[in-house]
Every structure is written in structure tokens, then in C-alpha cells.
């Protein structure tokens, strides 16, 4: 009833004048509580009244027709609602029970799904691990397949053997039996191991080191503060390793190097017995024997020299020598198979190791710091009548072994018919004619002269007299600090018309470019019967070392290249390759500036325009490997650099 009176008091709040729709219709039928639709209209009218109050408070006038609430029997509604309370309570309890059962059902379902999720997760982890193993196995098989398909697998065994030999030879001259490349090659794979073990040439050159014994067993022991290497292998293991190299190198001859520490005692028998036992078994296969030690005590009973019947080359490298210890190596004289010796002995008499000098074809005494005198050199050369290659250091040492002095007469004429290579190092400015006095070398092909002192007038005069007799000389090497008379050097070179290769090094050697340039008359006169031949007309290779080239040196160098190239072409000389090397010693690199000259008789270079450029005067063209110059000759000699000069110039 209070609700009805509130609605009637607020009837005129939302009225609008002149609008008949805004008037309240009082002729409505009474409200029937049985109809839900009319009851819904009553509730909406209550909400509209509240909306009108809120809009009026906010200052907004809502133009809406407000109908009066219907006439209802409130007591009927209350009675009906009171009668329905027990039924609604029953429905609430039922709904609560249903909700509880649904919650239990969902919780159980969630638990089941959680267990299923854990099972699936475990299965996924297992599959991922299995997938990782499969992928790793796949990668491993792919790598194995790749290794099997690499080109090295398809190489013939002969090529692989050549690669092995080249690798070992380039690495070191004397590999160690304990740590060396052949041992590393056999550990790569089974195939490489089979190839390396079946390759005897891979095991024919090795070094045996005699380790320093403990200090208490060393006679010549240093101070205890000096550390010494520790022996890690037993004597039996070392003997087996040494014997293994001999076995794998069969049936080829072997080259053995024996190295001992500085404080090795001849009385020490730790590895001395091991070496003697192995060498005595394989002595017939030792072809080269090298001994490196601080003194000759190592030779005392170390090697059974009398059993080395196949020994051809003997190399001795000692820092000092004791005459008492050297007396035991007289057995070298009883080895007629020795044909080559190399002595590097730091004492006054390098000839206390006698050999059959007449059988020697290769003698290397160039590393002896004391050297030998001219008289001794004459004696040695006359004793080595079959000498083919010789290397000597000539100094002021005048010691002559008595056994050699009885067998050689230095005043007697001697001919060495087989000598082809002779290398001489001079401590002082020694006249070359005094060494070659009453000696003839009809087959001498290469002469190398290394002078530690400047070359003066009398030295060049002796060269002039000697060069006239060397008609077979084709290669000449001269190295000295400085030559004071370059004009006399030209006279000496004029006596070598058949010389093909000249290697020269001295401080003013760049002046050679001027004296080696061909005369214009020799380059242009085709019909002359007596042409003005240039110096060294058959020169094919020139190597020049200079400290630093000046601007004039560059110009003279290219003048020499052009004139000699023109001369070769006009005279129709067989010059398939004329090569000039220019080294600048002041630079850090040692690679030369190289020029190769080709006579283009077939004009095969005519169609290769992108690779060639011509000089301003079209006399020849040149090709630069690195293409650093465009259209003109280089103005400087900057190594490393290589230029191919092609003559004559042909239109392209």
C-alpha cells in the first residue's frame, strides 16, 4: 500500500502540456495477479519512477508517459508466496545436491585428465630422447658417409704414398723415431695406417737420440742446477722402436742419424748397447750415417764401423775433438763404399778421420769454421780424382795431414774430368788463379763464389785468367760485399760467352743493368756478319740482389730487358724463357721482382687483349700476373711481383 501511494504522489512529475498521451488512464481494468505480463508491467513502472527521480536530480527532464500502477491485491500475493516457500526450499536443496555432485564429478575428471597428461608428458619426453638419439646417429652416419665420399678416399694408393713422402720430406730432414710424422700418419685411420706401413720409403730416414743418463752416472756432468731430460722409455722399448723402423723400411737402405747430448760419456752403456745391438743386425742396410755430438767421445766403440759395408755417405758434426777419441775411427779407411763425406768439425784438423779419398764423388767441407788453406785445398782436390761435387771453405789454416801430403804433389798437373759443381767460400780476398793453378775442370758446369771480403783489382784479374779456361761453365754465382771495379768485372764476364745463368749479389750490383744492356747495333743490324755481340749473349737467367734500388736503377733495368729481348728476337735465338730476378735486400720479404721474356713466334698471345698492355713505343707487350699496372711499364721494382714480357708486339 505504501508503494501505491508513493506512485500516486509522483504522477505529475513527468507530465507535458498538450500531450494527451501523458494523461493517466483511470479506466484500466483491475490487476489480475494471475497474469505474469501485467505483473511485469507493474515492475517496469516502478523502475521508470526511479529513473525519473534520478534524471530530475541530474537536471534532465525526461519526457515520458508514466502510467499509474495497476490495482492489485497485495494480500493475495503474500499468501501465495507464503504457500510456495516449502517447495522452493526443496528446490534449493536439490540444486545444492546437484551442484555438489557436479563438483565431485568435475574434480574426479580433472584428476583423471591430470594423470593422463602426466602419462602423455612422460611419453613425449621418452620420444624426444629417442629422437635426439636418432638424430645423433643420423649425423654420425652422415659424417661417415661424407668421409667415405671425400676425394682422398678415392685417390689411388700411389698418389697417397706420394703425398705422404712429400709431407715428411718437407717437414724435417731427420725425423725422430719417437715423435715424427710417420707415427702421426698411421693414427689417422686404418686405411692410412695400411698405406703408411706398406710404404718402406716413409721409414728409411730417422734419428736415434741418446738421452742423457742420470747425473750420478755421468762422467762429464754439469752443475746440478742444470736440468736434464728425464728418460721416459725403458731400454727394451727403445730397442723395439728402433728395430721397428728398420723392419718397416725393408728392403730399402736406411739413413741413420745419431744425436747425443753435450755431456755424454763414452763409458755410459745405457743406450750405447741398444744402438750397437740393433746396428749390428741391420748394418748391411745403412747407407747414410750422421753423427751429431759435442765431442768425438761418442765414436769410441759406439758403432761397429767395420760392419758398415754398404755405407756411402758419412756426416760428422762435432763441436770439439779429442785426438785420443778420434784414433778409434781409423776403420773409415776400410770402408771402400763411402763416396760422400760432410765434415763440420770445429777444430784445426778436420782430416783425422781418414777415408778412401779416391772413391769420393761428393765432398762438403764448407761448414768448418776454421776452413783450410790453399795448399790443403790443392792436396784434397788432387786426392779426389773422381770428385763430382765439392764445397770448401778456404781460409788461412795451413795444417796438412801427413798421410795426404805423401800421396799428392801440388806442383803436378791434374785433371778432374767429372767435377760439375764447385762451391768456394773465401775468408779473405784470395786470388782464384792460385787455387786453379795447374788444375783443369773440363766438365765444370756450375761455379759458386762467396767472398767475405771486398773484391779488389788483383782478385778480378785472377778471375779473368780463370774464366778463360772454363769453357763448359753455364752457371755462375758471385756474392761479395762490394766490387770496386765494375768495368773489369765486365771484362771477366766477356770471357764467358756460353754462360746462361748469372746470380750476383753485392752492394753496387744494380750497375750491372747498364753493362748487361745490349748495344743498339746488335739489336738492329740483321745482315752484319760480325755483329757487335753484347756481354753474355746467351744469358737466359739473371738474378740480382741489391740493398736498395734507386730511380736510375729502375730505368736501367727496363732498358736491359728491352734491349736483350730485341737482341734475342732479331738474332733468332732459342729463348723460350728469359728470366730476370731483382731482389731488394732492404725489404722485409725475400720474394723477387721477376720478369719472364717469351719470344712470340706463333703469335699465340695476339688474341688475349685483356691480359696485356703495350708500351708507349710498340716494341713488346707485357702481362702482369696481378694486373697492378695499366698501360705502362712499372716504375719501381716492388716484390713480390711478376711480369711476362712477350716480343714482338702484335696488334690486338
Automatic annotation (TrEMBL):
Residues 1-36 are annotated as: Disordered. It comes from the Eukaryota. Residues 1-29 have a biased composition (Polar residues). InterPro entries: LRR_dom_sf (IPR032675). This is F-box domain-containing protein. It comes from Ephemerocybe angulata.
